Amino acid sequence: MPREIFICSGSHWESILTLLPPTEGEGTKCIPSYRAGGGSEREGGQKRSDCLPETLQPAAAVVAPGRTGSAAAVVAPARCGFTLVELLVVIAIIGVLMGLLLPALGAARGGARRVVCSNHLRQVGVASDSFSVIRGGEIVPGGEDHRSEELSPEGRSFGWGAFLLPHLEQQNLYDGIDWSVGYDGEVNRGVAEVVLPVFLCPEVSSEGHQVNGYGQTSYGGVNGARFASKNRNNPVNGAMIYTGNYPNASLAKYRHISRRNISDVTDGLSNTLYFAEDSRSEESYAYGDRQWIASNNVFDVSCGVNKAAATENDITSQHVGGAFGVFGDASVHFLPNELDAEVLASLCTIAFDDIVVVDF
Fold first, then answer.
1. Residue-wise pLDDT tens digits, 293-334
2. Which are the contacts of 94, defined by CB distance < 8 A and separation ≥ 6?
3. Are 280 and 129 in contact (CB under 8 A)?
4. Within 13 Å of residue 209, how many CA atoms lie on the same side as its CB?
5. What is the tens place of the pLDDT at every residue in 93-148?
6. CB-based contacts of 159: which residues, under 8 Å, 6+ apart?
7. What is each CA distance from 40 to 46, 69, 74, 283, 290, in whole angstroms?
């Protein structure tokens, strides 16, 4: 009769192979099988052995519990771990997957930071529009009583960030400012040192997000375009101007400057930049401003996007490929590095009759 080979898995015995009956004839060796309940004798008192072909000899053979007859259970040696080749293949596959996934992950995180930055500027743009609506069309000043050794050495020098606080759900901070003294007066330090995420681009890495103990900003007001084609921004041709009192001005008309009105923006609000990114790494930033409460965060554009020197306040960012800007209608657009400088200059003026259509 055919015989079955069994293996043990836990407490179960399973048949894995059926063998033809071996013979004890020439060319075949036999190995003894141990049976449950002891060995059995051949007729005539001789020991009886079961035989397996030599090619299937097991390391050990036992009989499945409860079985009778000549069925033998073969227990093969267990194989543990990986071979070196298999381990190297797995490591190579993991390396390839990481090489594919890490750049994609970095791009996804960069895209997420761009969305956050765009949202922050959108909030600033909406706050600026709210300021204009409440104040009869007045455009928020880039700075008021801007401190200057020549024109106003005692200027209070409050910036656009301070004026927009009530429109950014920061009424308590606004009420905490003493407007009769300078932004850096000791009485205003408690307010000025507050870090407001809405004024920060998430790409900017700065410990504490403070500059000389004052809350930092990554954005600036656009004061105009300092190009020859735009009269070198003289007189100032942008939206974010310095207003207030300048007692040392040589001409009387410049001793007090009123705030601009949205009716002055004849090029159209959707064609005029109000704010833009002005941020770069600490190592490459030589200009000493970036405090949201101060009036230093205003600049006139003098070159293309991300092309300014470290000593220039201009449109710069740490995003790949460009920088964000917010227009007078509170729309936010990504300004690419390749944007023509003259086109950018036209976007920075309010009434130069140089309306351009840009497909952002």
1. 999 889 999 999 999 887 788 899 989 999 999 999 999 999
2. none
3. no
4. 19
5. 998 888 888 877 777 777 889 999 999 999 999 999 999 999 999 999 999 999 98
6. 142, 143, 183, 221, 291, 292, 293, 294, 295, 296, 297, 298
7. 9, 10, 19, 91, 98
